[in-house]
Fold this sequence. Notes:
This protein is an alpha/beta fold. Helices cover 45% and strands 13% of the residues. It has eleven helices and seven strands. The strands form two sheets. The protein has a four-stranded parallel sheet with strand order 3-2-1-4, with helices on both faces. A three-stranded mixed sheet has the order 5-6-7, with helices on one face.
Amino acid sequence: xxxxxxxxxxxxxxxxxxxxxxxxxxxxxxxxxxxxxxxxxxxxxxxxxxxxxxxxxxxxxxxxxxxxxxxxxxxxxxxxxxxxxxxxxxxxxxxxxxxxxxxxxxxxxxxxxxxxxxxxxxxxxxxxxxxxxxxxxxxxxxxxxxxxxxxxxxxxxxxxxxxxxxxxxxxxxxxxxxxxxxxxxxxxxxxxxxxxxxxxxxxxxxxxxxxxxxxxxxxxxxxxxxxxxxxxxxxxxxxxxxxxxxxxxxxx
Length: 252
């Protein structure tokens, strides 16, 4: 892993001015840390759209503050992108095109022509159609290029003292809506707020899938007993957004 760490440092030594697609997650946080350590002119851009929960922006702001780096926030009204909101099978690809096109436009105005993102070596392009959009837009993925896996990202993040080291992976809120079902602000809000309330109850690594007026709760298997024991509390906190709640017996 030491060799890979050196390769990552060398990337920033060779690319002295880069714009970072910064999500506040584990992967992009490591890139920001390494870029700063290499004295690279690295500017993080957070694209704020309805698909990103508020806590992601909070984490992005926190890490930038801890590293002493200014954060650029780009507001994107994703609901103006009709093809994305229709939620077709290639929604992720279409969404990445929108997000990164906006980011690249802003970065170029700020004087940055090299764009990087946090895709790592564990990410499978077959499972992530959005990676095709990154390739088409000539976005670099240093972690993937250096062969750094997700587990190695976490290990290097711990060494760097980053609070994001053990942060759970978090797919965008649009994934809570079944493919082919139009995405609405109401559905996204229901998913985000429901997951937030369940986290406050002590659950973790969860998903709330929106199936019309019904919520499908996905949990790790070891949290099933807890969920059954807290059945009334779960139904109570989710009743604000859903008329029915079911527990998915396929664990996360």
